[in-house]
Design goal:
About 15% of the residues lie in helices and about 20% in strands. The protein is α+β, with helices and mostly antiparallel strands. The protein has one domain. It is globular and about 40 Å long. The chain starts with a strand and ends in a 6-residue tail after the last strand.
């Protein structure tokens, strides 16, 4: 799995899927040819920010009680041969699973993403929160997880999306 280092700004929570599809369609065909399929429609569930217990190191690092929210916990990105090759947003379960020593996000700073002007920015996850809210990785709080951003939030230079892909490993 790979994820774009910079956010694509100006995308709302509801606009993620369309913008991810557009981004993927603009990749070179040689890149598209190594992208593995994922499910056509992720079943995300939703979880309210206040219902999550976080464990460290640091603040809001990993959701330690995701097993209490079975649909949310099972929303892990993986290849699915019956699906479609495409870009996708990570879930709360993905970020929790991929965080820690020797993983994709070994610390808070590694979760950070750059935006226009090389500023650290927030980025959407695909997991919904309470009504009208979505989960995101904070830029100003250096990689902390929150489920408190209104789904219509957009910034021209701030937060946005970070497309992820599952690719075939070259031999």
């Amino acid at each position: 799995m790979i994820i774009r280092n910079r956010v694509i700004p100006g995308v709302t929570f509801e606009g993620q899927e369309a913008r991810l599809d557009l981004w993927y369609s603009q990749l070179e065909s040689s890149v598209q040819s190594i992208v593995r399929p994922v499910v056509d429609n992720f079943i995300t569930g939703n979880v309210v920010h206040e219902d999550i217990i976080f464990e460290g190191p640091g603040e809001r690092w990993q959701a330690s009680n995701l097993q209490n929210f079975l649909v949310v916990a099972s929303d892990l990105s993986q290849s699915d041969s019956s699906g479609t090759s495409k870009a996708f947003a990570l879930s709360l379960a993905d970020v929790t699973h991929l965080s820690g020593p020797g993983r994709a996000f070994p610390n808070h700073d590694e979760r950070g993403a750059l935006s226009i002007g090389d500023t650290v920015s927030w980025w959407w996850l695909r997991t919904p929160g309470d009504t009208g809210l979505g989960w995101f990785v904070s830029g100003s709080m250096r990689g902390e997880l929150f489920g408190t951003r209104p789904v219509g939030t957009t910034h021209s230079t701030g937060g946005g999306i970070r497309p992820a892909l599952i690719i075939n490993q070259p031999l």
